[in-house]
Structures are given as structure tokens and as C-alpha cells.
Amino acid sequence: MVAHGAEGGGGRDGSPIVIVSNRGPVTFSLDGSGDRTYSRGAGGLVTALNAVSRRQEGAVWIASATSDEDARVAAESREEPYEVEDLRVALVEHDADAYDLMYNTLANPLLWFVQHGLYDLPYAPALGDDTRRAWEEGYLPVNENFAAAVERVLEGNPQGGGEPIVLVHDYQLYMVPHFLRERLGEGPFVSLFVHIPWPDPEGWRVLPRYVREGVLQSLLRADVVAFHTDRYARNFVRTAREVLGVEGDEEKGVVRYEGREVWARAYPISIDPGEFEELAASDAVREQEGPVRDLPGKLLLRIDRTDLSKNVLRGFQAYGRMLERHPEMKGEVTFLAGLQPSRGDIPEYAAYAEAIHKAVEEVNEEHGTPSWTPIVLSMEDNFPRSVAAYKAYDVLLVNAVRDGMNLVAKEAAVVNEKNGVLVLSETAGAHEELGEFAVTVNPFDLDEGADAIHAALTMPEEEKKRRAEALKRQVRENTIEEWVEAQLEDITAYRKARG
Amino acid sequence: MVAHGAEGGGGRDGSPIVIVSNRGPVTFSLDGSGDRTYSRGAGGLVTALNAVSRRQEGAVWIASATSDEDARVAAESREEPYEVEDLRVALVEHDADAYDLMYNTLANPLLWFVQHGLYDLPYAPALGDDTRRAWEEGYLPVNENFAAAVERVLEGNPQGGGEPIVLVHDYQLYMVPHFLRERLGEGPFVSLFVHIPWPDPEGWRVLPRYVREGVLQSLLRADVVAFHTDRYARNFVRTAREVLGVEGDEEKGVVRYEGREVWARAYPISIDPGEFEELAASDAVREQEGPVRDLPGKLLLRIDRTDLSKNVLRGFQAYGRMLERHPEMKGEVTFLAGLQPSRGDIPEYAAYAEAIHKAVEEVNEEHGTPSWTPIVLSMEDNFPRSVAAYKAYDVLLVNAVRDGMNLVAKEAAVVNEKNGVLVLSETAGAHEELGEFAVTVNPFDLDEGADAIHAALTMPEEEKKRRAEALKRQVRENTIEEWVEAQLEDITAYRKARG
Q1: Sorted alphabetically, which Pfam families does this protein's record hold (chains A, B) (predicted)?
Q2: I want to staple B106 with a disulfide (CB 3.0 to 4.6 A). Which of A416, B139, B158, B485 is the partner?
């Protein structure tokens, strides 16, 4: 790892690196005495991008300003990136209405729902003027804002020898490659990393024409479009072929567009195991261990954002069915569901949260006893408790309808102390990497889910150990530095191929 | 046409032809004096298969017995096909429970919903024992029953020189190729024609493992798997590749499976224009012309089965939006929606019918006047009235979420007398053939729908005429005989290639 960092100075050929993501690595605020202070962000993407940033001292990270003090930093960092700890950041202030349209209408729910296949198509979406307005007055200006910030950073920061490398991240920023090419031409290397699933062409077609074609045309002006799995990369090539009618080879991961070659590649994202090991040993987490340990029987765990893609309902239903079929398990297991509240102001999410409460009640009423509650639901944001539960689970349920990667599976595996078994949806991105060590489930099949939970709860110790160790090894060996390095290697290869 | 029929005696090399479909060309009953009588079936598939049957005198058509008298014919036709008019039929009697499980649990809604993308995936389907039972005790035995009937027909009917040709039809019979190969080996040529959309792999994955793999493995034991569009054929090749991991080339339409080559081909189905011209001139239809003609203003028409795939709600919503934007159109157009009742005992269909009534009320309350009802809804089975409306529409709306082909678009175009404009969903199978003569809509986009309806209603006469004539020509020139002939040609080519 030191060796990577020590290469210094940018990409492999010394090119300056710019990272662009909606959410940034730090948020600024004022402390009690009116001085500027900051907190570093958490979350999988930020952790991963920290690793990119560490890879090179001079890297600049561009992100949205999200607080008043952020806005002041944004103004200051127009000239030169703002330095904080090991980071150089340039924040971008957006018009509040434009940002709201981008984030709350176009990205969530529309792109999120389409890419996870969450719409009830006979009824929704009913696209219209709202969508067009969110696109034209929200998504496009916010994305152009980011491209302008990249241009400013590169102008003010001509360090490094080669052409710059611009690494754009996720579904809020699909139009950034388009605006970058408009401003900077073909010189910079541009990649866009999609951290959520890429659907098949039939799924993508649900979007209005100007979005589905606009996004694809922009992504094809990047040099590399990156995903967490080969499947999503293939889906992307197919989508480009079917929707735009361009030439593409899904096995080679190549699309030809306007005389250029665009690569579609998979780089499965990882976590920082050290970070989770430290967390697991922290006082905050230790304090939460008691309540988790006190739950009766084995611990069946799920930790998720409360999202329609996570398949929370069928998880409870499958567990209920398991209890029906195996009444001897009653009192021998508790299902702890830690569901972080999310997007509660979107009606679909409010309805989903309600359905979750109802599903929990049904199972608890049918199977519970005075001394045993089958499902313990915790709908709060308590990360230390989640990590305490990571350490203690016997079975971890990750049964997403669809999921870009799912980092819970990786985080939890690293710190688990019980040789816990992973029950993993075949449609979670993590399944490509971890499927062979998990018990695989079709997320739509309650009986398969019930069988999988039972098999995991009753798995012989030796088998559990073998799987848990292999899982830990797999997560530890695919380091986040390798995730970064694989991308940089492809950049070198791409530039070489392009000549 | 006569030339085709005159070739006689079977396939191009004289092979006997067996047609297998769930619904047959005739239904038998007893008349008042206790004598056997029959009625010939209607509907697109039956019309098309009649053309196959006409292609060769000796062809035998195997179908399910659906009445008591059918059951008696089934018993009689075990030895030898039953002859009626120009047809030779062999009816198959199924165990009533098995048939119910096949039809009402496995085929509808499960396969129908998956192939049209109609599930609200965060909530449904919740697969379980019911599904497995429907598969094992319904779908498999009914399909095996059909294969046994094919075997009996071929044993008792060794006419023709070459190996027999077995043409299996649609999603109720996916497992017939499997059972045919078990019984008859590799000799017979077997094709299976899928008349509904074939989804992308992500869509197909919603099925339980035993169904999604079982069906694919069976289809890949056929020689040709046929669809109405190239897109569905490509989706099929992708699905085979992604779900079974077999080798396939979607551009060539070839899958390699167990050392054999399977072709995926598109043959867009047609109608019998003569049949509709006759109908249009019939008294039954003429009697219905008055009520259609009396509707105020131009006629916007939709004729559909009441199915969640037809996108009835958004059709009304788009029309409402058009009236909002163009108040000058009020009173100048009436939307006649002829919706044939369907599957009312399935809860999703009952809920959809209710939503339809509500959507109609909303538009009529908002925009209607004492002298003008914006939408006239007719939820009854009145085919003569539909044909009367076919003749009279100014705009025909076909905005399906997804549709295998959609024959309404073709039937109506042939008999329309008003140079009516077709507004056609890009996700209807018919769009590959008819899209260039239609006004295309994204079925999920209400604003695009509103604009399309308005553009169609106000299109200059010359432009309407040009399109309507091209549409009629296209439908008339792709005759149903050509549909049959293209398949027989490929059979010859396939056999030649296989050597």
C-alpha cells in the first residue's frame, strides 16, 4: 500500500487526478466560538474515494456544498482547492431549487427506481412535465456546475505532466462527461463509475427519451464507464446497443461511439477492513454489545437503509415461513433488523415503512411468546449498534431485490466473531464475488428464503467456519487499494491502446 | 396462396406437420337434439394456425379439450385425428385440477407477469410452495400430456416421407419440447413459438430457479424458438447466456446447448385481411355503426383486453392532459375505449378494472360538459362493435406497457375508412414493423402521450393518408401465408445446416 502511495504525483504517467462526486469527504461548520471546523464523512463511497485521494497527494476532490459553511468554502475554493488533513477539496455551490430537482425528482426516485427495477409498471412512473423540468432545470445545471468546477480546478492547478484524469462518480452526475467534453475536449481521461445496478435495455427504456438517450450519450463521451460487476457492465453495453443502436461487444466490454472506443469495466468496490476492525474494538461499539447479546437464541441479522430495493418485507415473510416449517426453532433465534430511516418524504418510502411494521407485527403475533419476540425491529440510525451486531450474528441476511454491490455483506463479514453465515441474494452485486461462500437465495422466492435461513442457522460448525474464513479472506484480499490500482492500470492501458 | 397449399403432403420435404397449442380451432358441444356440433374459434393465434393447417392437408392440430363434448372427442381422437371441415384435430383431456394450476397459477399470472414486466417487485411476487405445486402438479403434467398426444398422433399417422415437424405454441406449453425429446429423441423437428414478449435476463430471473432453468432447458431442446420481433429473439439468446451460462450469439440468433444448435428467430405474425374485410361488411358490424358514428367529434379509439399490460390508465391520463393543454379540443373528440373483460378472478385484474373506472370518472368530471362525455367506456365483449369502431376511428391508441405483437393495430388499419392515425407504443411488438407509419410513444410518458394524441388528431389530411395507406399496404403485404412460409423455409434451412 505504501508502494502505491509512494508513486505519487498523479496517475501512472504523472497526470493530475480530479475526483468528482455529489457527496464529499468533509462537511464544514462553525464551532461555538465561530471558528471553522469540519467532520469527515462516512459511508462506502467516501471511504473508497479517500483511497483514491490517498493514492496521490495532489488529487483534488470536487463535491457539492451541503452546509452554509460549505458554501463559504466553495466560494474560497474557486481559486484554489481547500486543504484539510490529507485532502484537497473544491466544493461546488448549487442553486437550491436546481439541486432539489436533481436530487429529489430526477436521481431519487426516477433513476434509482429504474436502475433497481422498483416501479409497478402498470401504474408508475407517469412521466411528464415534472420530469422534464427536473431534467432541464435541475439535473443539467447541477451537472454543468460540476463540469465548470473541474475546468476551474484544472486551470488553476496545472501540476503533473500528462493529461488530467477525471474520475466522476454515480448516478447524480451522469451528464458530467458530456459537459466536460464540451468544455475541455478529448484531452482529459474521463471515467464515470456507476455504483448502483445497471438495468437491461427493457428496464432503461422506462425513462423518457431525453433522459435515456441523453445519459447514454454522455456516458459514451467518457473513456471508461465503470461498475461493480461484470453483469452490470454487460447490461450497459446492451443498453447502448439497443437504445442508441451503436456498435458494442458485451464480452469485450467495448462500445464504439462517434469514432471513439468506450470501455465498460467492472471493479468490485471494497471496504477498509482496518477501519471496521478499529470500530469493532471501540468503546461506542462495545457499549452496544450488551443489548445485542441479550437477545434470545441465535442472532439472525439484517442491517439496511430502509429502501424498497432491500427486500425487507420478503425477508420477514421468509423468516415467518421458516418458523412455520420448523416450530422447533421458536425461541432459538431472534431476527434483529436494523433499518436506517431513509427518504421518508417520498410517498413510496413512507408506504414501504408502514408495510414493514405490519409484516413485523404479523410474524410476531403469529409466532411470538411472552418470553420471545421473533423479530426485533430497530428503525433508527445507530451505526455503533449495527457494528456490535456485525460482531455477533449467526446469520446475516442480505436478500436485496437488486443492489449495486452491498457493502454490509463485506463490512459485517470482516468483524464477525461467530463464523456467521451469509445468506445472499443472487441479484446483489456482491454475489459475483461472495456467492460461492454464501447461501444463495432468489430474493422473490419465500420458500427458498425460508430454506436458506434454516440451512444457515443449522449449518455444521465446521462448514460455517470454512465459509466464514473464506469470506473474510476474500474481502481482505480484494483491498480498496487494489480497487483503485485496477482502475489506474486500465487508464494506462486505455491511453496506450488509443495511442 | 393456392400455390402454397398445392405443395401438399407436409413440410417442404413431405414431412408430416403437427401443430400443438393450448386453445384449439374448434369447440364441440351437443345441439338441441343431442347431436354433436361445433363452433370454430376466433382470435389471432387460431387464425394464424389455421393458415398453417391449410398449408398442408394432412396436418394435425393438437389442443386442450375445453368442454364435455371436447372430452368425448378427445377420447375418440386418441386413435386417429378427428376430421372437421378442413381440419384434423386431436384433443387432449387434462385433469381439471392440473389444468387449473397450469393455467391460473403458473401461466397466468406468473409467466404472463414476468414476461410483460408487470410485477411490483418490492412487493410481488412472493413465490413459494404454491408456485412449486403449480409447476409440479399442473404445468409439467399438462405439458407431458401434450407430448404424449404428439407421440400418439405420430404413431397412428405415419404419412409423409421425412421426419415429422412439430410446431408448439406459446407460454402454456414451454415444457413440451423437453417431453417430446424424452419420448421421440432428436428425430422430429421441434419449434416453439412464443407469442408474448421475451424479457431481458434480469426480468427472467424473477422466476423461481426450477421454472427459469426448466423452461430454458426445454426451449433449448427445440430446434427453433420463434418470436414476433428481433428484439425478443435477442432477449432470449441473452437470457439463455446469462441464466444458463450457455454460448449464444444474439446477432446471429443462435444458442449452442448440449452440442446442438438452436435458432432464435423472429416471424412477425399477421392477420387475415380478407377475414376482416368480410367482417367489416357484415350486417352484425353494420348494425353497430350507428352508436359509434353518433359520438361527438373525432373518434379516438382503443380496443383491448382488460389487461395490466395494455396501459389503459396512462392512456386516459395522457388524453386528460391533452385536453388540459388544448381546451379547444373539448367537444371535438370522443375517446371510445372498448375493453373486453379478462381474468376478473385474479385480484390484480379486479384492482386494475377499478382503477380504470376511476381514471375515466376523473377525466369525465374534469373536462366533460352536459353535451359531451370525453371518454366512453365499454367494458363488454362486443366484437362487432369493435370492428365498427375500427372502420370509423380517426386515431387508434395502442400504448401497451409491453405487448408480444398487438394485432388490434393490424386488424384496425386494414378496415379503417378514415385514414386514421395509429399512435403506437415503442414497446409493442408491432412497433418493429409498423413504427415508421405510426406516431411513436413511450408508454410511461404522459406528456409524450398527450402530444402524440394531439398530433394525430390534428395531422394534415395528406400526411394521414400517406401513413394510413402505407400501414394498410404493410399489413396486407406481410400475409399470414408468408408468416407460415418463412417458418417452413427456415425448417428446410435448419435441416440442411444440421445435415
Answers
A1: Glyco_transf_20
A2: B139
- Say how many domains are in chain B: 2
| Contact by Cβ (8 Å): A312, A337 | yes
Alpha helices in B220-268 (DSSP H): 230-239
CATH of the domain at B51: 3.40.50.2000
Reported residue count of chain A is 499
Distance in angstroms (rounded) separating the CA atoms of residues A214 and B455: 24
Tens of pLDDT, residues B440-477: 999 999 999 999 999 999 999 999 999 999 999 999 99
pLDDT single digits (tens) A135-166: 999 999 999 999 999 999 999 865 556 789 99
Cβ–Cβ below 8 Å for B442 and A242: no
Compute CA distances A181 → A172, A188, B377, B476, whole Å: 18, 8, 52, 49
Using the beta-carbon criterion (under 8 Å), do B202 and A117 form an inter-chain contact? Answer: yes
Among A13, A130, A422, which residue's Cα sits nearest to residue B445? A130
CB B98 within 8 A of CB B138: yes
Beta strands A247-249; A254-257: pairing state: antiparallel
d(CA B293, CA B299): 9
Nearest chain B CA: its distance from A350 CA (Å) = 13
User: A312 to chain B, minimum CA–CA distance in Å?
Assistant: 9
Distance from the Cα of residue B215 to its chain's centroid: 19
Residues A185 and A115 in one domain: yes
Q: Rounded to 5 degrees, what are φ and ψ at B145?
A: -55, -45
Helix, strand or coil, per DSSP, at residue A340: strand
For A260, the enclosing helix (H) or strand (E) is strand A260-266
CB-based contact, B32 to chain A, within 8 Å? no
Q: Are residues A244 and A299 in the same domain?
A: no
If asked whether residues A202 and A164 sit together in one domain, one would say yes
Same domain, A249 and A317: no
pLDDT tens, A97-129?
A: 999 999 999 999 999 999 999 999 999 999 999
CA distance A65 to A126: 32
The nearest CA of chain B is from the CA of A250 a distance in Å of: 11
Residues B6 and B112 in one domain: yes
Nearest of B245, B219, B220, B249 to residue B234 by alpha carbon = B249
Cβ of A314 within 8 Å of Cβ of B231? The answer is no
Q: Which residues of A touch B313 (CB under 8 A)?
A: 122-123
Interfacial B residues in 435-464 facing A (CB < 8 Å) = 442, 444-448
User: Cis peptide leading into A109, omega within 30 of 0?
Assistant: yes
Q: Do B260 and B290 have their domain in common?
A: no
Cβ partners under 8 Å of residue B370, min gap 6: none
B159 and B299 together in one domain = no
Range of the domain at B238: 2-270+480-498
Residues of B in contact with A122 (CB under 8 A): 118, 308-309, 311, 313, 352, 401
Q: Does A247 touch chain B (CB under 8 A)?
A: no
pLDDT in tens, A220-271: 999 999 999 999 999 999 999 999 999 999 999 999 999 999 999 999 999 9
Going by the DSSP 8-state scheme, the letter that residue A329 receives in this structure is G
Residue A251 C-alpha, separation from nearest chain B C-alpha, in angstroms = 11
Q: Which of A116, A308, A104, A103 is nearest to A196 (CA)?
A: A116
Confirm if B430 and B403 have CB atoms less than 8 A apart.
Answer: yes
Say whether A442 and B125 touch across the interface (CB within 8 A): no
Whether residue B435 contacts residue B483, with contact meaning beta carbons closer than 8 Å, is answered with no
Q: Is the pLDDT of residue A8 over 60?
A: no
Quick one: A261 and A290 in the same domain? no
Three-class SS of A85-106: CCEEEEEECCCHHHHHHHHHHH
- Interface check for B246 against chain A (CB to CB < 8 A): the answer is no
Identify the closest residue of chain B to A208 by CA–CA distance.
B445
Q: Tally the residues of chain B.
A: 499
